[in-house]
Every structure is written in C-alpha cells, then in structure tokens.
Amino acid sequence: MKKIITISLLSLLSTAAMGASFLDSVNRTKWGDLDVVWIEDNKFPRFNAAIYFQDGSLSDPFSGLTQGTFDQISSGTSKESEREISEFFDFYGADLKHTVTHEYSVYSVQGLTKDIGPVMGKVCELFSDAQYPQKELVSYVSRSKSRLKNLVTSHSALADRIFRQISLTETPYAVPVEGTLATFDKLNPVGLKERLSELNNAKKVLYLTGPSDIKKLEEVITKKCNWTAKSSYKNLVLKKPSSQSAIYLIPVPGANQAQIRIGRYVIPDEIKGKYDHFSFLAGFLGGGFTSKLVQELRVKRGLTYSAGAYVSMQRDYGRAGIMTFSKNESAAEAISIIRDIFQDVTAKKFTPEEFKHQQGHQIGGFSFTFEETHAFLSQIMLYDHQQRDLKELVNYPELIASLTPEALSQANLEAFPWERLTIVVVGDKSLEKSLSRIRPVRILNYQDYL
Amino acid sequence: MKFWLVLFALLMGCSSVTEKKTLSENIHIDVEELKLDNGLTALIVRNPKLPIFSLQLFYKVGGKNEVPGITGASHFLEHMMFKGAKKYGKSTMDFIIEGSGGSTNAYTTNDQTVYYENLPSTQLEKILDIESDRMENLLLDEDDFNKEREVVLEERKMRYENSPRGQLYLEMMQTLYKGTPYGRSVIGDIPDLKSVSREQIFKYFKRFYAPNNATLILVGDVDISEAKSIIKEKFGKISSSPSVEEAHKELKEEDFAPKWTIHQTLAKKGESPNPLFMLAFPTYKAGHPKGYSLDVLSSIIGSGKSASLINQYILIEKPIATSMYSAHQSLEKSGFFFVGGELVRGVKLPEFREDLIKRLGGFCDSEITERNIQKVKNNYLTGLYGGLDTNAGLGSFLGERQLIFNDWRFYKKELDMYEGVTVNDVKAVCKEAFSKPSVFVSVWNMHK
C-alpha cells in the first residue's frame, strides 16, 4: 500500500502553480455600486451570471420571507404576467436558479451569450418591478404547504430538516430558510415587495463567466437594475453549543430504514485559521469509499449503503456532521460504531498509511476544482463571503501536505466531541429500545417540524 | 492550441447570424478510435486544459439481459467489481484511485452498466491495468459476496421500499413492460437478491463482461499514442466472450413490446400523503426518427415554467398538483412517453386521469407551435453545452451513442434530427402517442 500513497513533491509544485495561474484569471472590477468578479471562458458560447446578495434569511421577520421573495420574483411585473415572463426566459433557453441561505442569497442565470442582453435586461426588470400578484401568491402558498406536508415521503430530507432545527436550537440558524406551515400564510405582496427592496439595497457581487463579449452586460446592469449597496452585513455572535444528553427519535410511518444524523454547530473562533484541518477531517471521516465511515459501516459490516461527513462554514456559523442510514435492527450499532470512530481518531488510532492516503486523495483531487469555471467561481463566492484570502484556496495542496496526524486528531476532538453532539434518528418507533442503550431517547412528532 | 471541441457561430435562437450552418456542422469532436482484435472498442479524446482525465467503461449488459432467478445480477456485479481482482487483490482498487486524488463509481440501467473514474493524468496506465484486471480476473470472493448482498438489499430499500417515488417508477415499469425483460427490476427482486449464488453471478460475468461487449472511453489530458499502446497491452490479451453475441441476438425486439392492449390502472399503497402518479404511453426505441419529435413534445408540455402541464395544473389559483413533469424515455429495444407528478390532497384520481388524457390530446392542437418548438431547440442547446462541459460529460455523451447505435458519430444525425423537427412532425407523434392505451399508476397512503 505504501507505494501508492506517496505524495510527490513535484506534483505538489505543479498543482500550486496551476492554482496560482487560475487565480490570475480571476478579474475584479466595479460597475457602479456593483462589485464584479469575472473569468473569461471561451469553451462554449454561453454565460453564467451569479448575483450574490449579502443578505439572507436571517433578516426575515418570519420563516420563508426571503425564499418566497426569490421564488415568486417572476410571478408578475406591472407590465407582464407570470406566464409571459416564464415564456420569455424559456424561449431563450435561460436557466434561472436561486439559493437562499441564512447569511446570503444567490440568483443565478445561465444562457447563450448572444442572448445575454435581453435575458439580463429582463432579470433587471424583475428586480426593479416585481409586483407579487395576490392570485399567484395564493397558488404558491397552497403548493408550498402541500409539498411540505408531503416531506414525509423523503425520510432523508425530513431528517435533514429536523436535525437543523434541533442541533441549532436557540440560535437564529435553526429557523428553516424555506418557510413553515405556520408562516406561509404570512406572505403578502406588500411584505414581499419590501423584502425585495431590501435585497436591492444590499451589497451585491456579480460572479460572471463566459466569452469576453459578456462584458457588454455592464451597460444593461448599470442602466436597468437600479441596484445599490446601501445596507451592510450584520454580524452575529453565537455561543458554543451546549451538552446533549438525549437521542431524538422521530417515528415515521412504514420506515424500514433509520436515517441517522449526528453533529453540532460550529462557531467561527473554533475554525478560524484551521479550515484546511477541518476540511481534511471531513474527507478522512466520510469523503469517498475509502473513508473511515464507509469502510467501517459499509465495507466491513454491510450496515449501510452510504455514509458521509462534513464540516462547513458560512461566515458566522458552521456545521459539523455525519449522515448515514441503516436497517432498523442495526441503527444503534451504526451509531455506536460512529462513536468509536470518533474516539479512535481523537486517540490517533489510525495508521500513517491511512493518513497519507487521505493527503494523496485531497492533493491529487485538487485539479478537479478548476474543471468547470462556474463551479470554481462558486467556490470563490463562498471564500469572499467568509472573508477568506483566495490564496488559501490555491495553497490548499501545500496546506494539506503540511498537516500532521496530531492536527487531524485535534480537529476531530474539536469538531466531534461526543457529549456535545446532537443525534437525530428518523425511523420506526420500535427503535426506542435499542437506541436507549446509547442515550436516553426523546420521541418527537415530525409534524411539529414542518 | 487545438481544442478538443470546436464550436462555431450558432444558428439556433433568434439572434442575427450571417453564415448558415447546421448544428451538427457546428459541433465537431476530435475522436481517436481503436478497435482490438478481441472486439474491444476504445474512443479517445484529448483535452489538455487540466492534468486530469475521465475513463468510462461501458458494458452492454443491464437489467434486460437478466432472467428470473438472477434479477439484479448486473447491479450486484456493479458492486462486486469494486471488491477486487487477481492482480491487485481484495479491496485495493478504491484505495489506489482515491489515494491518487481520483474518484470512481458505476451505474446500471436496463441496457448498460458503466464504470467510471476521474483521475489525475499520471494514473492512466495504472487505471487501465486495474480495469483490465477486473475484466479478466474478477475475484468474486464468497465472503465479500455475502456481505455485499446486505448492502444491495439496503440500497433497494432506499431506492424503492422507502421511497414512494422509486416505488412509483418501479410499478410503472413493471406494469408497462409486464412479461418483458424491461418489466424486471434493475436492482433485482428481493427473493432473487437473497438467493442468487456466487456461481450464478460468475457465469453471468463470464458471458457479458468481455472486450467484445465493452467500449472504453478516455477523455482528458492523455497522450493519444501512449493511451492506445497501453490499451493494446492491457486489454489485448483478454479473451472475447464466445456467447455474448448470441445472447444479444436472443433478445428480439418484439419480446420487449408491451403485451397489453387496453388501458391499465394500478393503485398502490405507499407512504405518501399526497397522491403521486405516472401516466405512460408506449412509443419507440432509441434512434427511431419519431423519437426526436416525441422528445420535443415532452419538453413543450413538461419542461420549464412555461410548459403546458405547469400552466394548466400548477400555476393556477387552486393548484391541482405541486409538481408535474414529462419525458420521453428511449431504451435500446423500446420506448415510452410519460407524464408524472405529485397531486394535492383532495384530487380524485379517476377524474384526474381522465382529465389529463383529454388535455394531453388537446395539447396536440393548442400547444405545438413554431415558437414552442424553437423554444425547445434553444433549451436543448444550452443543455448540450452543460452536458459537454466536463471530461466525464463528454465521455458519457460519446459512450451512450457508441453503445446503443454502435457509432459515436450518431450524435450528428441526432442533432440534424432535432434541428429538422417541424410543427407537423410533433403534432403527428402527439396524436399517435396519446391515442394509444396507457398505463396509469398511483402511489398514495389512502390506497388499500
């Protein structure tokens, strides 16, 4: 095994040089109040524009307002109906998407370069003139409620939603971005227009990629979008998560598998300056077939089909977690094994080969970061939001190469201290008995989390 | 620098273009072909942008090649192929690939099984050695086999028993293709998965996993002459399967045609508080000229916010559905057109089904317009670019065509077909498809 996991210094140097050259291709400029980051990409005659708003659902007076503002932005302007607007974008083959997180929101548009003028012009019209007609809003609320009530059809999605609410309890990040059954009815045209106005005044950055003629977009954006950057980001300070003493079991009908979520929220002070340590840890525990979790749970014992780990950050909070599932009869065993893995990694009970293997995995895979320009830009967007130096991104292989087993062990201890981890299991009610051997079990009703 | 994909000014859409060229003339992919004496086909595309490449090994074997008793064999083998072969030993493959920064996985469909790896360019020889090793000398260790059986059963639960949407798709396929090879479950029936033996799977492996039933695709930063030479060295010595051709010949197209002649309705109990449904009509196999018009039809009525189904069932004051979609699925031996979605509670399924079939018929006159067809073509183009953006995406694009049509260049014919689709073509297939008997399947927790 040793032969295949030696990290070549030459490969390190070449990846670092490649990263630096990609960084050189990132251009930053300003169009009026709008910051612009763009990378020229001539592979295809298409563009990708992602507008980052430094404003997310934390500003919502009730759950789902920002999400609704973006979801319904194309439901009608003073000149055009929802149908006319959709017809316009569909005709041009423009793909519109949006993502709302607690701290920021992104509206992205992808289309053919030759159509960038009319497509982005129409996007600007939406942001400056969306009316949120009542009739379309009623339909949206009805659909949203119906979909949410049906979330029980996906035990995995249900587990994710409940895990957030429980593991982040007492923080504003516990509130679901997408809205709740209790808050959808609060949406109204006036509130949505006011929220859109706030978003129009929030700091924004346009992340753009495509052939060089996409720069003609400047005129469209500065003349039509009426965007300013009056408001700024309000930082939040969270206290460290407290100890956990229970397993939360959420029974769902007809479950023959148990969805397992284990983790906690993380505050910036815990991660600052050590992003690479935690990223390495996540890969070591659950990044790929050779990770600890997959080897122990799937390969050695056949308990699950998949298992993953993550340690991710926005700006003022992050999350460290494990996600997997197992048969009802082996759910408790799976949790115990995960606990043992944490203990072993903290106690440095892993071989030098396992450690070097993960280094090889993360360093060798670095080149893939740059394969899709828009994906690379998304990564830059996240770094910008976190206020991190992009040099950290291009120096990632070197940072990983310099890590020690002690750093991995310490990162595991800090990210996954067993007594502070929330455990959520979505599955059959009969699991109560076996789970109680690990921690006292609290049974919750899934409908309370919709 | 000579780029691997040459694109010129494009015609579709509505901007002014001075020089007229067809879409297939605009898209040229520089592919190097290699055919070994044992039947292996290899396609290589050089893309030196980054020091990485994608390898895909397409085997012409899937659910349709299985028989009762060994349903799920192709998928089970998909798992076992990662468990080791003679030269590299047990469970080393994942470590070699991931340890060098790569990733690997596989998928199985009714018609094919595809193994793929994305790796740094330095690993070319190693991965070709590994792939040839498992093609020639798969271990199929008994202990691993039995352990993996449990993993496959868990995967089946995840995809079907615990997923009302998966359950819906499975029921639809089993009803639509009842009594044909497409009516079997790709992941396998539970009794078969529990009882199938290592020997049965090994026999199946020896018949289908051979060079004369495989296409190897390489896309990325590889030296073409070096790649060809390694492929010849590693794969050239593997014997071809003497019985695989016969196995394919045994599968007659008529054996895949749906066997029923009247409308079929199936209501299955499942854990979905909202009714989920699929309505399917039999159509044509992959490559049939009418298939391209059916693809356009499915986009007009079901893709994008302005699609007919979305406007008539969702974006209304009292929505009938929370999601609706349609697609035309072209399989190697058959095809079907389907509409599906999630309805709101309170909708009466028999009335909804009747209304939907009536409206679909109505769409043939009201929705098939020049503008709607142009809209679909524009969307196809943006989707095409997205699909070809990565080494893996381009590899998959070529491999699919090579496997189904025995010619990767078939994409040019397909592009011409799409470009040539007219209002009359789509109206004709619309009327033909929706006048046929259909299958309506629903999954709901209120069903008995």
Structural notes for this entry:
The complex is a heterodimer of chains A (450) and B (448). Chain A has 450 residues and is an alpha+beta fold. Chain A has two domains: 193 residues, Metalloenzyme, LuxS/M16 peptidase-like (Cytochrome Bc1 Complex, Chain A, domain 1, 2-Layer Sandwich), CATH 3.30.830.10; 203 residues, 2-Layer Sandwich (Cytochrome Bc1 Complex, Chain A, domain 1). Chain A has a six-stranded mixed sheet with strand order 1-2-6-3-5-4, sandwiched between helices. Chain A is globular and about 65 Å long. Chain A starts with 8 loop residues before the first helix and ends in a 7-residue tail after the last strand. The N terminus of chain A is likely disordered. Chain B has 448 residues and is α+β, with helices and mostly antiparallel strands. In chain B, helix 11 packs across helix 14. Chain B has two domains: 222 residues, Metalloenzyme, LuxS/M16 peptidase-like (Cytochrome Bc1 Complex, Chain A, domain 1, 2-Layer Sandwich), CATH 3.30.830.10; 185 residues, Metalloenzyme, LuxS/M16 peptidase-like (Cytochrome Bc1 Complex, Chain A, domain 1, 2-Layer Sandwich). In chain B, the strands form four sheets. Chain B has a six-stranded mixed sheet with strand order 3-4-10-5-9-8, with helices on both faces. Chain B has a five-stranded mixed sheet with strand order 11-15-12-14-13, with helices on both faces. A two-stranded antiparallel ribbon of chain B has the order 1-2. The interface between A and B is large, with 73 and 78 residues.
